[in-house]
């Protein structure tokens, strides 16, 4: 084409970024990649191809790590652990800083290699992925420095296993590795089998940075390698980003193992456009939401919700914008959308879209010509869909947007929350009242107001509901790689002794004066099954019976908690007043509660101390009601990111047998202080103190359904509670960790299991911010401003 | 391409009321524009030549003289060195800048100098740059300039009408100017650096188009902040809105602050992406610039020779 022709057409032409240096790097490795273990390269076996999705050509061969290889990597990480932890925070920060500098120095090589391997446009890898990865290491170099003074009660977990996805290979690696290193853990990481190359380049960078041997180990391979990591007994924590299905399997596979877990899973995030939004800006937001990285983004705004008044105009603008997107060679600097990762993914996208069309959706698709070879899919908008359609419910993980309309703000919230997922949401309105009204109401870990897909190392990223749990980035993200130093000792023997006392059928009663009932929805209720079980005193004599709860009692209690919103709608000050009132009312009944404790074998003094501590504990959490503040994160943006502590919702709490009143209060109080509703399972052996507590609740203005108390056989009650889809979190203090964690995978509820004994009277163990963190989740609300 | 001239319309305050502008989102889009598109080699040369045809080569200084203006007109007629023209193989295109832009006093000189060319002659008017002279004098000034040979009139709006949101006063004023222009095309300068917020910029843009503007233009070049990408995005999105609602295409002229060839390329890709290829033609897009041409010439020489060029190798205007 000569200049005169171009002057007529005014085409962009080609602007290719050269792949040469990246290909040269691969050639230096003879296009056959190794594992990085103990600071050295291990050639491995069972190689498989890693292809360029834009051309289908093979870039390199990558080795499949087997169990043995994973073992070696874990051993290396274990061996490196003491030395790494012994370093000062400052010394660790220097390594992180050096890594950041080295990525920066090789930034274009990383970007080109990423684009070759993943198919994403070079603009994105160059301007987004790589700079954000660098930023993550710089940010966490700072945390390494500050760790000792900012987290004096915490320590590293140990060897962590990290499994990352193919959509942001280097960035997800950075999100995983930077906080783990900063906090003093050692690492075995597995990149996705489609995209291992930048992880190996990164390992090389770490070699150059002089990172001690074994601190970072990179093993490549497919899901089976991941399985070896997940199941490895010496790995203390698994951090996973990927599909909800695999996340659920990991939750089940690690159940009862004591492994800490953070899961960043799928999403179907709502993109809400109000009638008073800057529509042109919102259109551009949609481009960044769903046509970024070919829509292969877990937090992609894939469900568009437009207010009816502007829906037609907005769709028109959006479709016209969609047709301007340029799809093609990802190495071309003028390309908006590159290649889909793999033909199987492309087929999955195509078949889901077809299913949508078959179900009656109206298909709007870019007519831009796609490259003749390679793996591409056009930008797509499906209108005329409804919440009952599969395309609206399922994560498509491709450049496919579904659009629905709403009439009122509350309808927007209802539609947005009508999903198993809860990763992110984007809200567009020029009315600050509207935006700040909607942000707390949408169920999501991240809310972007008048922006979308904004990420930064200083702000936590992560979801609610089946989008997983845990946060990456920000102070909140560091807790995922830390554990409290408190002394704990196992109490398995004690549990056994306690469990022996439980029984299932009616036994003779001696001198019993009353039957404690369960407490559901603000009322005392008899067990659904009509059975009771005997409660013994310390001498083994039966003193009374308690209701033997079954799954229907669980159902009723959860229903009562789930539908009772008034507690969560009260402000912190109001909750605080009620909790002080509870403490006051318990104090009136001191003698009564102490006598009950004495019947379990407490000495008078012990009993009085436990009651007194319980009153103090209620006051302690009443005090915290309006003080467990969120944060404003310092991200590089003109605006604010508010990290809000939100209640989790309905928490099922299984109380331990030790200190039956105080442990009950110590678990109940932080949960309700933060605005949750609870279903409490009383200690099986000593349920009476908990069951007696309804009197305090009834007299303290606690709204019905806020606190529900059931009794019975712990194991019988665990299964329906842990598996209940309307329970958002479960705290199991006792011996049911494996069951609880396995069943919690049904809806990926947050689980907190404790097999070890806590000294509830000790304020370092029995109370503290750890309880408040467990009772809340962080929602990061991004609000750019400026006029 | 013939563009049907915007006849204007009745003032519709509902449209003005409904305008929303999110500054942060506009800035993000503006920031990514330059990174989203890249034109290289032959294409870059062609795009830079296109930019030359869009330039309103401007001198608006108190010390302007006839001889200075003649020199500028000569540059407009031969914007690039003859050997570069040959090397690019575009001799027969007889490339010129889009227009010459001067004060009224220089019109006769410029008109004579430009005789026999297609180069438009623009006069700044209506008490430029502050626009605070009596209305009847401003209208008279337009008529005088048209009589003196200007076929394009760059008017300034009364900024206080924007601050007081007195849209009907603004509308009436601009409409009166348009009538005074007659056949001459009218560019309305919003003075975006002074009216400050993007919301004001968007609303003033729409009012001016309703009043019959042929072009909307950012600034006088005399403000401390002139054309910026966020301001430009704001204005051209209103142009798009006006076209969607009325069918008429209005032109855009960023003025002041665009002095690099690279910036010109970003502007061109912005026009192409946001409005379409029609806005890559001088009928609908102009750069108000004085030093941009020099940088474009240097880049063209680099394209041809592979060596970075120097300013003194190219004729000044």
Write structural notes for this entry.
- The complex is a heterodimer of chains A (787) and B (317).
- Chain A is an alpha/beta fold and 787 residues long.
- Chain A has 3 domains: 245 residues, Aldehyde Dehydrogenase, Chain A, domain 1 (3-Layer(aba) Sandwich); 194 residues, Aldehyde Dehydrogenase, Chain A, domain 2; 208 residues, Aldehyde Dehydrogenase, Chain A, domain 1, CATH 3.40.605.10.
- Chain A is 43% helix and 19% strand.
- In chain A, helix 5 packs antiparallel against helix 8 and helix 6 runs parallel beside helix 7.
- The longest helix of chain A has 29 residues.
- The radius of gyration of chain A is 28 Å and the shape is globular.
- The longest helix of chain B is centred in the last third of the chain and has 18 residues.
- In chain B, strands 7-6-5-4-3-2-1-8 form an 8-stranded parallel beta sheet.
- In chain B, helix 3 packs across helix 13, helix 11 runs parallel beside helix 12 and helix 12 packs parallel to helix 13.
- In chain B, 49% of the residues lie in helices and 10% in strands.
In short:
Chain A is of the alpha/beta class and 787 residues long. Helices cover 43% and strands 19% of the residues of chain A.
Which secondary structure elements does this structure contain, and how are they paired or packed?
The complex is a heterodimer of chains A (787) and B (317).
Chain A: H1 3-9, H2 20-28, E1 35-37, E2 40-42, E3 48-51, E4 58-62, H3 67-86, H4 89-105, H5 107-118, H6 122-150, E5 154-156, E6 159-163, H7 169-182, E7 186-190, H8 197-208, E8 216-218, H9 223-231, E9 237-241, H10 244-253, E10 260-264, E11 269-273, H11 279-290, E12 301-307, H12 308-322, H13 343-358, E13 362-365, E14 380-383, H14 390-393, E15 400-406, H15 409-416, E16 424-428, H16 432-441, E17 446-449, E18 468-469, H17 474-478, E19 482-484, E20 489-490, H18 492-500, E21 518-520, E22 523-525, E23 532-536, E24 542-547, H19 551-563, H20 566-569, H21 572-588, H22 590-599, H23 604-624, E25 631-633, E26 639-647, E27 650-654, H24 660-673, E28 677-681, H25 688-692, H26 694-698, E29 707-710, H27 714-723, E30 729-733, H28 737-744, E31 750-754, E32 756-757, H29 763-766, H30 769-774, E33 776-784
Parallel strand pairs in A: 6-7, 6-9, 7-8, 9-10, 11-12, 11-16, 12-15, 14-15, 16-17, 17-33, 27-28, 27-30, 28-29, 30-31
Antiparallel strand pairs in A: 1-2, 3-4, 5-19, 10-18, 13-14, 20-32, 21-22, 23-24, 25-26, 26-33
Helix pairs in contact in A: 4-6, 5-6, 5-8, 6-7, 11-12, 19-27, 21-23, 22-23, 23-24, 27-28
Chain B: H1 13-17, H2 23-36, H3 41-53, E1 55-58, H4 66-77, H5 82-88, E2 99-102, H6 107-114, E3 120-124, H7 135-147, E4 152-156, H8 159-163, H9 167-181, E5 185-189, H10 192-195, H11 198-210, E6 215-217, H12 229-246, E7 251-253, H13 261-274, E8 287-289, H14 292-305
Parallel strand pairs in B: 1-2, 1-8, 2-3, 3-4, 4-5, 5-6, 6-7
